[in-house]
Design goal:
alpha/beta; Vcp-like ATPase, Chain A, domain 2; Rossmann fold; seven-stranded mixed β-sheet; 10 helices; 15 strands; globular; binds S-adenosylmethionine
Length: about 375
């Protein structure tokens, strides 16, 4: 039997921060909140729950600790899944009198205010769309970009390689679109600081804007400030001695071309034992870097060169061409066992389809994968 999926997942790059206008289609039925029953149905959760415990659950679970219900200014993600396949995903900022538009219909954004952060809302076409808050990873992947960002999977590993801690002083360059700056900002916290240096004025402007947008939406979400701990500077790191003078850094993150050219300016400001992690796209650039280090005899050791592979998987019930679930053919049993098996089949029948573990699954790496992003090179400074 050929196992097939209903539809392949689309890449989720469709939208930058999407703020829809109020010029929307007329709603015939009016999008409504998805009822508890429909919500449960969407999750194939057929269990009966007493009303009192539903109320209790709602009081305890309506928002994450420290967070309130949705309010204007927040960055949200809208997702629509059909039969376990993501059909669309978009980020938008919740705005008064605005509308969320998608191929599946329109939702007035005013209706989302005061709702819990993970809820289904129906479009005017009666399609349930899942609404949730944007994580920092979502934001960085969907925000308006100038140059390519340090991919979040690499940013997370770089933070680990740098051994960044709360309160650290960190140097970053180039600021690019401001993606890595936000991850560093969160890692060092209110007691730490990040100096982010960008040579191009247009990139500097984008990075600052993305940083401010995230901080503003965070204040709407939490009712408190995201630490204002990143200092952006529009200058060439090779000649940035005036802003580096008198500063010492616990660690450094570099994502720029020809990093071997900036290391002579940077290393004197890295504390001995401190780490400099470089994000380098081509292996030939890694070779240039190592050659540069060898020839200039800079006081650092190359400890590691790695790649961070992440593999998405498809794990979903297999479907026939007509959309029905595939079924697993039962093993041939002797007559007494067959009778027993048939009886138990009848009692297990319910309205959620074939019984537990009686259908085959698609379970294999997703055909659309994120391929190579970069090599991460870890240098450690030694006392010269
Ligand atoms: C790929 S982007 C960095 C992306 C960033 N890490 C992010 O997550 O958004 C590389 C940036 O380095 C900047 N750059 C290149 N050489 C530089 C230098 N010598 N000093 C400062 N910035 C530099 C480029 O202008 C570009 O904006």
């Amino acid at each position: 039997m050929q196992l097939r999926e209903e539809k392949l997942q689309e890449p989720n790059e469709e939208a930058a921060v999407q703020i829809s206008d109020s010029d929307c289609l007329q709603q015939e039925n009016g999008p409504g909140r998805v009822t508890k029953e429909e919500h449960l149905d969407l999750h194939h959760a057929a269990e009966e729950t007493p009303a009192s415990s539903l109320l209790e659950e709602k009081q305890v679970m309506s928002s994450l600790p420290g967070e309130t219900m949705l309010s204007f200014g927040e960055l949200l993600i809208a997702e629509y899944q059909k039969k376990n396949q993501l059909e669309f995903k978009t980020m938008f900022q919740l705005q008064k009198s605005a509308h969320l538009h998608s191929s599946r219909g329109v939702i007035p954004q005013d209706d989302l205010v005061g709702q819990p952060a993970g809820c289904f809302r129906k479009t005017h076409k009666d399609v349930p769309v899942f609404i949730r808050r944007a994580s920092l990873e979502d934001y960085v992947l969907h925000m308006k970009r100038g140059p390519e960002i340090t991919h979040p999977k690499d940013a997370a590993t770089m933070l680990m390689m740098m051994d960044v801690m709360e309160g650290d002083c960190v140097l970053e360059s180039g600021s690019g679109s401001g993606g890595m700056s936000l991850f560093l900002s969160r890692a060092v916290g209110a007691k730490g600081s990040v100096l982010s240096v960008e040579v191009r004025e247009d990139h500097y402007t984008i990075a600052v804007k993305n940083y401010r947008n995230w901080r503003t939406s965070w204040a709407s979400r939490r009712g408190q400030e995201w630490p204002d701990n990143v200092q952006f500077e529009n200058t060439d790191l090779c000649t940035a001695s005036s802003i580096l003078t008198g500063r010492g850094f616990h660690s450094v993150a570099l994502n720029l071309n020809s990093p071997h050219l900036v290391l002579p300016s940077v290393l004197p400001h890295l504390h001995p034992g401190g780490i400099c992690v470089l994000y380098i796209v081509n292996i030939t650039q890694v070779v240039d870097l190592l050659e540069g280090l060898r020839c200039s005899a800079l006081p650092c050791l190359c400890e590691r060169i790695i790649e961070v592979p992440v593999r998405d998987w498809v794990v979903t019930p297999a479907l026939e061409k007509n959309g029905e679930y595939c079924t697993i053919e039962a093993p041939h049993l002797d007559e007494s066992l067959r009778q027993k098996d048939e009886t138990s089949d009848e009692s297990e029948d319910d309205d959620v389809g074939p019984s537990f573990r009686s259908i085959p699954y698609i379970a294999r790496p997703h055909p659309e994968q994120l391929n190579h992003t970069a090599f991460l090179v870890k240098l450690r400074k030694f006392e010269s």
